[in-house]
Design a protein that fits this description.
The complex is a heterotrimer of chains A (285), B (103) and C (154). Chain B is built from no helices and seven strands. Chain B is an all-beta fold. The relative contact order of chain C is 0.19. Classes of the chains: A mainly alpha (285), B mainly beta (103), C alpha+beta (154).
Chain lengths: 285, 103, 154
């Protein structure tokens, strides 16, 4: 269905080419090809201007501020803050932590991404039960998500730092391989997979270019610009949300928040983005 | 209680540039919920910005201002450490005031 | 932005007085400061009438900046307007094909630059009017902004 949308967008250019081909007017055909290409280029340029105009004043900052407050507030049954939470660089160290995630945590004996680790800290430090901590993983209008706010705050402190995800522990290696497998797995009612959209160069949906996530460059560009404020939703979206929504769009079963499948895909993409400068929370259409 | 605003005020030559992000749904009153019921309009109607105690901008907004509104403008004068205060009032008569120093 | 120095002064507090004013039962400054009939208007003529002006004159002294010709999503459309008309008193944004045309009115007070940047919602591709009140008269400039649909999930 994504391909169908693409076809519709290109429809007018294609139809014009077809008619002209039939009339065998080679000169006119070449003119049309140029004109259509030009129209598309200028549209892409204008969209680039639109994106540039949004950069100044990213509402993600509102989430970052709320997240910082949540991080420092004494909360939960134990009334302690999350400032003692170990995100991988030691208790309380936030800056740079996101560039190392997901990673293996010995205390949990599990590979965790940021969202999962935040839930872990809410449970172990603040004594929330797990279902309370996971109750609202994604925000929706007035029902705000504490997790998304915390994600905005933690990731914002890694802005400008290079991605540096290790595959040292056997469980990290295992998780990465699982992520790679899930990425190329096709299934569901449409025989779809991540690879259907994200394993070739030059694919797009309407005017949105789709990154080829199997290349280093594509993974870098995509991974370093999440989380992001989605203007179409008016929400700050975490990477877990991005994967959750990709699964929904593929008509796959629901990707459970904090599941191994979600962490595996995150690790696969984060690792492939190594070396790139993290630049989020971003703002996207 | 509404979330705090983000106010950034900086001196640029002999002027001060003010940028404000507000946390607000800015519901249009045109949308319907899952049950087909119209979601009532809920939006900021009035915004005022003061420098120390002088009003430098006042605005009236309708429902077409984007969710989580952003506004930027400049005024003459202003020095580092001066106080910038922003207040909004919405159609539910909810109000929020935040302040920041010119940096 | 220094969050440590910023603190909330007031919030919430729907006092009875504010409630009455908001509902138009009290002739307070609050009630007068939001021009309901202008925001309810559907046409340029009705909006102008509600604002207390006649037909605005086209002006080249009003410019759009940081305003794209194509919006990738109509939910957030950046608009920048500046006026070089002497004694600019107010800048308003009107969107022709929105259910209500008037989006915002900014009063430009003495000492404030007649330049404003904000973001609006657009229901569809439409002309956007930058309406300026200068020296008691109204002037206008317009720009068409195309609204596209996003990729997956709108």
């Amino acid at each position: 269905m994504i391909l169908r949308a693409e076809r519709r967008e290109l429809g007018s250019c294609r139809a014009a080419s077809l008619i002209l081909t039939q009339s065998a007017c080679v000169l006119a055909l070449s003119f049309c090809v140029t004109a259509c290409a030009l129209a598309q280029t200028s549209a892409v340029d204008e969209i680039a201007k639109y994106r540039a105009a949004l950069q100044d004043g990213n509402p993600a900052e509102l989430w970052e501020a709320r997240g910082e407050d949540l991080w420092k507030q004494k909360r939960g049954p134990k009334q302690v803050s999350l400032e003692g939470c170990d995100l991988g660089l030691g208790p309380g160290i936030v800056k740079g932590a996101y560039t190392r995630l997901p990673m293996y945590f010995a205390d949990a004996d599990r590979v965790m991404d940021l969202e999962t680790r935040l839930v872990w800290c809410m449970v172990t430090l603040q004594a929330y039960n797990e279902s309370q901590a996971k109750k609202q993983p994604f925000g929706n209008g007035e029902r705000k998500s504490d997790i998304e706010a915390l994600v905005a705050f933690v990731t914002s402190t890694s802005r400008g730092m290079p991605m540096n995800v290790a595959l040292k522990h056997p469980k990290e290696v295992e998780m990465y391989q699982a992520g790679e497998k899930i990425f190329s797995y096709r299934g569901g009612p449409h025989d779809f997979g991540c690879v259907t959209c994200h394993a070739d160069e030059g694919k797009r949906i309407r005017l949105q270019d789709l990154p080829n996530l199997t290349t280093r460059e594509g993974a870098q560009k995509a991974y370093t610009t999440w989380p992001a404020y989605r203007v179409s939703q008016g929400e700050l979206r975490s990477f877990e949300w991005r994967l959750y929504d990709c699964f929904r769009q593929q008509r796959f079963p629901e990707l459970l928040f904090g599941s191994d499948a979600s962490i595996a895909l995150t690790l696969y993409l984060a690792r492939n983005a190594n070396g790139a400068i993290f630049d989020a929370p971003a703002i996207k259409r | 209680m509404p979330d705090p605003m983000k106010i950034r005020a900086t001196t640029v030559g002999d002027e001060t540039e003010v940028k404000v992000l507000m946390s607000h749904e800015m519901e249009t009153g045109q949308r319907k919920d899952g049950q087909g019921k119209t979601i009532p309009a809920w939006f900021i109607q009035n915004v005022s910005v003061t420098w120390n105690s002088k009003t430098v901008l006042s605005a009236q907004w309708g429902t077409a201002v984007a969710k989580n509104p952003f506004v930027s403008f400049r005024f003459k004068g202003g020095a580092k450490g001066d106080k910038i205060t922003v207040t909004w009032v919405d159609n539910r008569a909810e109000k929020r005031t935040d302040e920041s120093m010119i940096a | 932005m220094n969050r440590g120095r910023r603190k909330a002064l007031q919030s919430g507090g729907a006092t009875l007085l504010a409630l009455l004013a908001a509902n138009g039962w009290l002739p307070s400054a609050r009630a007068q400061s939001w021009n309901k009939s202008a925001f309810d208007a559907h046409s340029l003529g009705d909006t102008m009438q509600a604002l207390g002006g006649g037909e605005p004159a086209q002006s080249k002294e009003i410019a759009f900046f940081q305003t794209p010709e194509i919006a990738e999503n109509g939910a957030v459309v950046p608009i920048g307007i500046s006026s070089s008309l002497p004694n600019t008193q107010a800048i308003a944004i009107l969107i022709e094909k929105n259910p209500n045309m008037l989006a915002a009115v900014f009063d430009i007070l003495p000492g404030t630059e007649p330049t404003i940047t904000t973001r609006v919602k657009m229901a569809q591709t439409s002309n956007v009017y930058a309406l300026v009140k200068a020296d008691g008269k109204y002037y206008v400039a317009s720009k068409e902004i195309k609204v596209t649909l996003g990729g997956c999930g709108g």
